[in-house]
Design a protein that fits this description.
seven-stranded mixed beta sheet, alpha/beta, binds 5-O-phosphono-beta-D-ribofuranosylamine, globular, single chain, two-stranded antiparallel sheet, 208 residues
Length: 208
C-alpha cells in the first residue's frame, strides 16, 4: 500500500463561507483526508475569513483593485497557494473567474461548486434562476473549473426537488444542505485518488 498524505486545500471565497465551514468540519471530524492550508477572499469583510481564523487557518483578503491586471492578481493568488504547498484549489462561493495563471498551475486540481444542475442555470444566481424558471428539479453540481464559468467536467451532482410549497428561501436551504454534504464528499474522493478524468467525463470510484 502506498503511504497516503493529507491533501492541502487552498480555498477561495467571497462571502459567508458556509461551504468552507462544511469542509473544515469534515476535515476536523476525520471524514475528509485534507486540511485547509489557506483561505483567500476577494472581499475584505467576508464572514468566511472569520470562520477560518476561528479554526487557526491562515485567512487573507487579496484585493483585485490593488493589481494593475487580472494576470497580476491571479499570479499573487498562485504565489500564496505555492507558499503553502496547496495541492487542490477549492472555489467555495468565489465570485470571480479564476485566471489562467492558477488553472495552468493546477491542472485538474481546481474545483468549484454550483447551486444548480449544470449545464442548466449557470451564473451568479443559479438557485433563483431555477426557481423562477419553474423547473421541478434542480440541484447541486461539483465540477472541475476551467476558463469558462461553470463549464468544466462534472465530478458530482445531486438533485433537489422543488415542491409545491417551496419558496425561494426554502429551496435555498435545501440546496445548501446538499452542498455542505456533497462538497466534502467530492473532495474526499479526490483525496483518496478515486477520481479519474477521461475527456469531459469524470469517473468516481466508490469509497470504502
Ligand atoms: C453557494 O451556494 C455556492 O454554490 C455558490 O455560492 C454560494 C456560496 O455560499 N457558488 P457560501 O459562501 O459557501 O456560504
Amino acid at each position: 500500500m502506498t503511504e497516503s498524505r493529507r491533501l492541502r486545500l487552498g480555498v477561495l471565497i467571497s462571502g459567508s463561507g458556509t461551504n468552507l465551514q462544511a469542509i473544515i468540519d469534515a476535515s476536523e471530524a476525520g471524514e475528509l483526508d485534507a486540511d485547509v492550508a489557506i483561505v483567500i477572499s476577494s472581499h475584505e469583510s467576508a464572514r468566511g475569513l472569520e470562520r477560518a481564523a476561528k479554526h487557526g487557518i491562515d485567512a487573507i483578503h487579496v484585493d483585485r483593485g490593488k493589481f494593475d491586471s487580472a494576470g497580476a492578481y491571479n499570479a499573487r493568488l498562485l504565489e500564496e497557494f505555492r507558499a503553502r504547498f496547496v495541492d487542490v484549489v477549492v472555489m467555495a462561493g468565489y465570485m470571480r473567474l479564476l485566471g489562467k495563471e492558477v488553472l495552468d498551475a493546477y491542472p485538474n486540481a481546481v474545483v468549484n461548486i454550483h447551486p444548480a444542475l449544470l449545464p442548466s442555470f449557470p451564473g451568479a444566481s443559479g438557485i433563483k434562476d431555477a426557481f423562477e424558471h419553474g423547473v421541478k428539479v434542480t440541484g447541486v453540481t461539483v465540477h472541475f473549473a476551467n476558463e469558462v464559468f461553470d463549464e468544466g467536467p462534472i465530478i458530482a451532482q445531486e438533485a433537489v426537488r422543488i415542491e409545491e410549497g417551496d419558496t425561494l428561501a426554502t429551496l435555498e436551504a435545501k440546496i445548501h444542505e446538499v452542498e455542505h454534504r456533497i462538497y466534502p464528499a467530492a473532495l474526499q474522493a479526490i483525496a483518496q485518488k478515486r477520481v479519474r478524468i477521461e475527456g469531459r467525463r469524470v469517473h468516481v470510484a466508490a469509497g470504502a
